Amino acid sequence: MRSGGSALSWRRWWRSAGFAWAGLVYSYRVQANFRIEVWAGVLALGLAVFLRAPLAPIGLACALVLSLELLNTALEALVDLASPGLHPLARVAKDAAAGAVLVASLGALLVGVTVLGPPLLALVR
Questions:
Q1: Where are the bilayer-spanning segments (predicted)?
Q2: What is the reported pLDDT for 5?
Q3: What is the pTM of this model?
């Protein structure tokens, strides 16, 4: 489907933003992991605000995990559409996408411990 109008059109931008929002809403409703990751991100950002720790690394780590989870959801849907039956390559595609989310989640955990750990320890002491 061709998009109508100028690339700088507000109407076109709002239409595109609507499609993106629909993808976010779908993923939140259907994917339990996405919901968990959203709330873990909210908790991490809230803790960063409370501890007066830098928000940028926490926000970027959260955005990376959530973005990869959305891509994982999209890839799973495409694989299911293209290969409704069991196929070894379909499994590889799904597992690799899930692995990308896992790697990003472990990286986000490392960022969280590094950025939030020292101020949290100082508060406890």
A1: 34-51, 99-124
A2: 60
A3: 0.89
